[in-house]
Design a protein that fits this description.
mainly alpha, Growth Hormone, Chain: A, disordered N terminus, disordered C terminus
Length: about 425
């Protein structure tokens, strides 16, 4: 029996949590991501800060996820990953609660520092979930688990966003901070119910040495480095999700519409997209599904560009984009679980973070490029920049996989 078959057999027989449980433990990760991607742009735009500066703010909040692979190894040492999940959720929730108490625009620097710190710490929730899923879930359930984890991520973020935006101006900032704190910490406690595989106790040096070997094993293999290439490309980044709340004034959409579209309704829409995407990823090539999702997001951006610039276009366009984003996120998670799971070792969380770091790099630069064109071309420039980057990414990936590496006999299958 090959080593790959041994890993697959071990996954199939080991105890594992039901896929839906990772929907609950992903809620804290979704809330901090949505805070940086929706609440922060909304509050800063209302405070009179322009889109160019907000684009830089958004890029700053993406730096921790881009560099997360450098400090994610902490999740693979010491306490179990499920215990780490609770710890980082509490610390991240504290940072976001503090950020919400900073008055804007006078304390925008403190607001952004606390927002970035919240992202820095609680972003590790994704590493905890990714490491546990990759190490314990059988391959036949990875697509479904990806759907549920993204459902919790996106729905939790939507609910947290809706709560913070609705409460803004109605309640004292301390109450808003407490609400966000509880919305992050309470779901994280569900991690205690996860039957996580035990880890062998080893000296610190041996653990880090094993992590380096495990990570290198993923990076040097064809399915590993090609997966990282896809993650780092503009394809399926759904970067506009981080700026739709700030673009509402361009569509003359009132705050009530922003709260519903980017909050309450987005949870249902993105969850539906993620569940459908997860189901599809268990029945087709997961990389191909990711490229298809990128093409659909480009199509939505083009249609929004051609449609009248009013609140109706904003509402329908954002909701469709959110649905497609759910498809993209499920496909991203599914093929990442597949790659890491097939090469699983002590550093599962660190391996998983390599791919999420590449994906967050794409979200960061795509979003910055999108917002750069707002000053000269308005919302039309933002939409077309997003569409062009997705299409260009698809073309480049197909060329790389079909032409360049054909000479070396390493063409990643997309069918």
């Amino acid at each position: 029996m090959s080593s790959h078959e041994v890993v697959v057999t071990a996954h199939a027989r080991a105890p594992h949590a039901p896929p839906w449980l990772f929907g609950v433990t992903s809620v804290p990760f979704g809330i901090v991501g949505a805070f940086c991607g929706t609440t922060m742009p909304f509050l800063t735009r209302k405070a009179g800060i322009d889109m160019e500066a907000i684009g830089w703010f958004g890029l700053a909040t993406m730096i921790p996820p881009m560099l997360q692979f450098m400090y994610a190894p902490i999740i693979d040492i010491g306490p179990k990953r499920k215990h780490w999940l609770i710890i980082v959720s509490v610390l991240g929730a504290t940072c976001l609660a503090g950020a919400l108490m900073m008055p804007l625009p006078t304390h925008v620097a403190a607001f952004m520092v606390l927002s970035v710190l919240g992202q820095l710490v609680s972003g590790l929730v994704g590493s905890c979930n990714g490491g546990i899923i990759s190490a314990s879930m059988p391959d036949k359930l990875r697509g479904k688990t990806a759907g549920w984890s993204n459902t919790g991520n996106l729905a939790g973020g939507a609910f947290g966003t809706a709560a913070s935006l609705w409460m803004n101006g109605r309640f004292d900032p301390r109450w808003i901070g407490l609400a966000i704190f509880l919305l992050m910490v309470v779901p994280s406690l569900a991690a205690l119910a996860i039957p996580e595989p035990p880890r062998e106790a080893q000296p610190l040096g041996a653990i880090f040495g094993g992590m380096i070997r495990d990570v290198w094993a993923v990076v040097r293999e064809r399915h590993g480095w090609t997966g990282i290439l896809i993650c780092a490309s503009p394809v399926g980044s759904a970067a506009l999700l981080n700026y739709f709340s700030a673009l509402a004034p361009d569509y003359h959409a009132p705050d009530s519409v922003v709260v519903v579209v980017n909050g309450w309704a987005s949870g249902l829409v993105t969850a539906t997209g993620a569940l459908i995407g997860g189901w599809a990823c268990d029945r087709m090539n997961r990389r191909a599904a990711y490229l298809i999702g990128g093409g659909l997001s480009a199509l939505v951006a083009v249609v929004m560009r051609l449609a009248p610039q009013n609140a109706t276009t904003y509402t329908l366009g954002v909701l469709v984009y959110l649905f497609v984003a759910g498809l993209c996120y499920a496909a991203f998670s599914a093929f990442t679980y597949e790659v890491v799971g097939n090469s699983v070792g002590r550093a599962a969380a660190t391996q998983y973070t390599l791919f999420t770091a590449a994906g967050n790099l794409a979200i960061g630069y795509v979003g910055k490029i999108d917002t750069h064109y707002h000053r000269a071309f308005g919302v039309s420039g933002v939409l077309m920049a997003d569409a062009v980057q997705n299409v260009a990414g698809i073309v480049i990936m197909l060329i790389v996989f079909s032409v360049v590496f054909r000479k070396r006999g390493h063409i990643p299958a997309l069918a």
